[in-house]
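so my prof wants the structure for this chain in the tokens format not the other one, which i didnt know existed until like an hour ago. anyway here's the sequence
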Amino acid sequence: MNPYLSKKTKIVATIGPASRDRKILKELILSGANVFRLNFSHGSHEDHKKTIEMVRSLNEELGTHVALLQDLQGPKIRVGQVKDGGVPIQPGQQLIITTDEMEGTSEKVSTVYKGITQDVKPGDMILVDDGNIELKTIKVEGNDVYTEVIHGELLKSRKGINLPNSNVSAPSMTEKDIEDLEFAFQFDLEWVALSFVRTAEDIRDIKERIAKAGVGTKVVAKMEKPEAMINMDEIIDATDGLMVARGDLGVEVPSEMVPIYQKRLVRKCNKVAKPVIIATQMLESMTENPRPTRAETNDVANAVLDGADALMLSAESASGKFPIESVRQMAQTILAIENDSNTIYNKFAEEDEFSSTRLNDLLVKSACELSKTVSARAIIGMTKTGYTGFRISMHRPQASIYVFTNDKYILSQLSLVWGVKGYYYEKFENIDDTFDELEGILKKEGLLESGDIFINTSSMPLHWEGHTNMVRLNQVK
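here's what i got, hopefully its the right format
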């Protein structure tokens, strides 16, 4: 079996000009990519449509279940056009940001975000180009924001603006986001990431749109705003998954807080069975180089040790020189940590005593605890909705997790979830015959061998109905 496909921590690879090719996509899958991110800040609808069609065709060809994650741009605030490909900005000078259309100079630049004059107030910090340019707001007059330059350098067109001290009035979903979301509805993508989430209401809004469209897409909240850190518990409760988007987060909050927030968010998500992705600059140097830095390798390793469900590659796989090598390097690092560490396994989370599924959840937990006691090789779950896969995963059993379902869409959705390997199975046999057949499938693939202990979970009397209500201990003859 391909070792890259056996890792438990999943890889999200962003698709772009360097990887939007069928042969490269195939190699990315074989190198360990589990989810492909479609970044709607770049590329046309036609580009994304081609990628979707290629990925789903490759899933059929390879028998894989790679998921697709639509990443909405959100209310990205940017500088407008500036002269000569860039203008020098010096510390101590005055710089005016205007909402009027103009070609920017060293003294005055434009922004397409009309709300900036309402959002900022004297004393507020404004960061441009990932914080490389720092401005202090002096006053607001009409369409102009007057600032003093604290740190400056060459300012180029279309660079991002961050307002870390301001309450940004722009909604999380722009008109472009709504158009992009509606475009994606026709493909019923497995996941969608909402940028610049601030409150749980942002999540409820996009979920209402998804429900009205009648698709099964689950929502990932991108945590990259200070308000999101304040409201993290409510956001986690409302969403289906989380992304620690360290790029904008590291600009909007003090950089030393990013690792603290990363660990806090991962821990909270692990406790409630919500998959969490760690993103941004994980192997950034591999956009230009065939090998990562030692610090990047340690960053990947620490995210695995923290308990992340998935790690994300951005420019490395979208526009870098070594997209395949980046995925392979990340997979190798993940495997090395998973094979050598015991601390990431058997984290038995407490169940919610007020949950309507508490009894079923306790049974899943007992199956995971039993797997540790008897050193089981595998836990085999059957699911109609994917719920069993999420619940087994949250306890991080060292035993392999194999989930069988008669819904291929659910199999792809589970590709983001830690440890879960999915199989399509649609028969309605009695429970004994079904368990024997599932055992046979795994034996044929070399995943179970004679003498191995494994655990079955299912629902009875009909294994495609209801939540898990039975656990059975078995040994391969």
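also thought this was worth mentioning. The chain has a mean pLDDT of 94.
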